[in-house]
Specification:
284 residues; 9 helices; alpha/beta; eight-stranded mixed beta sheet; 32% helix; two-stranded antiparallel ribbon
């Protein structure tokens, strides 16, 4: 069987979501969810190290990668990403899956596993331990920021080359390696005004008007009933250490202590064999 993935579209209430898959109906189905402004190709390095008998599904969230952007006047909210997961499962006829989420994708994985416990067999979190929602007092400022952001027209920046786009990724994500940045830029840009632009909808840069405070997130996290594993990078991104410790200790179904792997925030691109080994140990 080849490592090549089939590209197809699934419907999310009229919005076309781009999915890549390597189907194997009798095998465990594993759905990979990428990080903010990334795309499904961020998981490509893992594929050669995973069992060829697994049904692999790699989703581009709405407005990212090759998935459609929402229409004029619409916005992106966190719950939309959970809808994307459900649309993918329904569109592919999958009753239940193992979820693997990086960064934003991990937050979505936890939320979906809590909301739909019967459809999630396990969750692997890569550099992801919930949102940085902050205290309840931040709700008013968050809403004000969202209203202010809505007045700013989306700016789609043009880059002369893939290398220039990769350099921009490195500015925004200093833990990225040069090779990872080039790979993300190569698969995450398209021709635009004589140069290149990132495929993600620039409206994703606007702040959410609503978010979870710590108490709300912990209540949601408590709804996760499937096995969970947490993979962290030694040079990755971190919330407040006390907050991370509390969230980790509160993971009631943590399969084993967190794995600490050498690398940055995109550790699955830097250490694909090690991450794949962790997936294979958990997924049956």
């Amino acid at each position: 069987m080849s490592d090549a993935l089939e590209s197809l579209s699934v419907d999310a209430e009229g919005l076309a979501l781009h999915v890549r898959q390597r189907s194997a109906p009798a095998a465990p189905a594993v759905l990979f969810l990428h990080g903010w402004l990334d795309h499904s190709h961020s998981f490509d390095a893992l594929i050669p190290h995973l069992p060829r008998t697994w049904w692999l599904v790699l989703l581009d969230f709405r407005g990212m990668g090759r998935s459609a952007h929402v229409g004029p006047g619409a916005t992106y909210q966190f719950s939309d990403y959970a809808l994307d997961v459900e649309a993918t499962l329904n569109g592919l006829g999958l009753d239940a899956v193992h979820l693997v989420g990086h960064s934003l994708g991990g937050i979505v994985s936890q939320a979906y596993a809590a909301a739909r416990p019967g459809r999630v067999k396990s969750v692997t979190l890569i550099e992801s331990l919930g949102p940085a929602g902050g205290p309840a007092e931040g709700a008013l400022g968050r809403l004000r920021s969202a209203l202010d952001d809505a007045r700013r027209p989306p700016n789609r920046k043009r880059y002369p080359t893939v290398e220039a786009a990769a350099a921009r990724l490195l500015e925004n994500s200093p833990t990225l390696t040069q090779d990872a940045a080039l790979y993300l830029a190569r698969h995450g840009t398209e021709p635009y005004e004589g140069g290149l632009a990132f495929t993600f909808d620039p409206r994703h840069r606007r702040r959410f008007g609503m978010g979870y405070d710590e108490a709300q997130w912990m209540a949601l996290q408590a709804g996760v009933t499937c096995p969970v594993q947490l993979i962290l990078a030694t040079g990755g991104l971190r919330h407040d250490e006390a907050l991370m410790r509390n969230r980790t200790q509160a993971l009631q179904t943590l399969a084993h202590p967190p794995l600490h792997l050498p690398g940055g925030h995109h550790v699955h691109m830097e250490q694909p064999e090690m991450v794949a080994e962790a997936l294979i140990r958990l997924i049956r």
